[in-house]
Design brief:
There is one protein chain. The chain is of the alpha+beta class and about 230 residues long. It has 9 helices and 12 strands. The chain folds into 2 domains: about 5-140, Jelly Rolls; about 150-225, Arc Repressor Mutant, subunit A (Orthogonal Bundle), CATH 1.10.10. Helices cover about 45% and strands about 25% of the residues. The longest helix is centred in the middle third of the chain and has 27 residues, at about 120-150. It is globular and about 55 Å long.
Length: about 230
């Protein structure tokens, strides 16, 4: 990637957007890019946390697997977002694994370059605090959803969150995710997730397509996420 392209990607991210030109120039000088094919492992849980990643293109899945082989998906990271910042800052092992959900190009900034910059630039430290607070709020919200919301509520809320980051078209917003993966996000089996999605498809609230789910009538999902019930009309 050119210096201009690297800078444009950094400006899109919540962590680096709004920083001064001098700081961005330093970050760009540290950054290098790497491509990953769909299905490739970017890092595993317990790997050394030696770098921060910014997504230039594609989608990255952040997840964990239990000893029984059950997967839990924590987040899907799209273009213009960052991941890997926790282990980067404390130098401890990775807390989850990162997998390329599609073909990806990532920008990588190593810890040995990033930490001294943070120490010398309070603006970056404040940005990191904001990003980590947002992560913590999202984690707390996910825990609350599992405890307090039923399957339809959790599924509707997750679809709405993912759809808000997807491109809009006349047909709706398509979330590029499999039913198995969205089931892993909400803590339900693929079968239960599929059954609920099929019911919504019959009501024309969503449309199931190869490689994704299109949110057609988001207002209905908003009502479900809020705890309302329907008579099927």
């Amino acid at each position: 990637m050119s210096t201009y392209d690297k800078r444009a990607v950094l400006c899109q991210t919540p962590l680096f957007g709004g920083l001064s030109s001098d700081i961005l120039d330093r970050l760009v000088s540290y950054a290098h890019t790497k491509s990953f094919k769909a299905g490739a492992t970017i890092f595993n849980k317990d790997d050394p946390g030696t770098s921060l990643f910014a997504v230039c293109s594609g989608t990255v899945k952040i997840s964990n697997r239990s000893f029984e082989g059950k997967d839990a998906v924590f987040n899907l990271v799209n273009a213009g977002e960052v991941f890997g910042e926790i282990a980067l800052l404390d130098g401890r092992p990775r807390t989850a694994e990162a997998l390329a959900l599609s073909d990806c190009e990532l920008m990588i900034i190593d810890r040995r370059d990033f930490v001294p910059l943070v120490k010398s630039q309070p603006d970056i430290a404040l940005k990191i605090i904001e990003v980590l607070c947002a992560r913590l709020r999202r984690t707390s919200e996910q825990v609350e959803d599992v405890i307090f919301l039923d399957l339809p509520g959790r599924l509707a809320k997750t679809l709405l969150r993912l759809a808000a980051r997807a491109e809009s078209s006349a047909q709706g917003r398509k979330v590029a995710i499999t039913q198995k993966e969205i089931g892993q996000i909400i803590g339900m089996s693929r079968e239960s997730t599929n059954k609920q999605l099929r019911e919504w498809e019959e009501r024309r609230w969503v449309r199931l397509e190869r490689g994704g789910i299109v949110v057609v009538t988001p207002e209905k999902l908003v009502e479900i996420a809020a705890g309302d019930t329907f008579d099927g009309n």
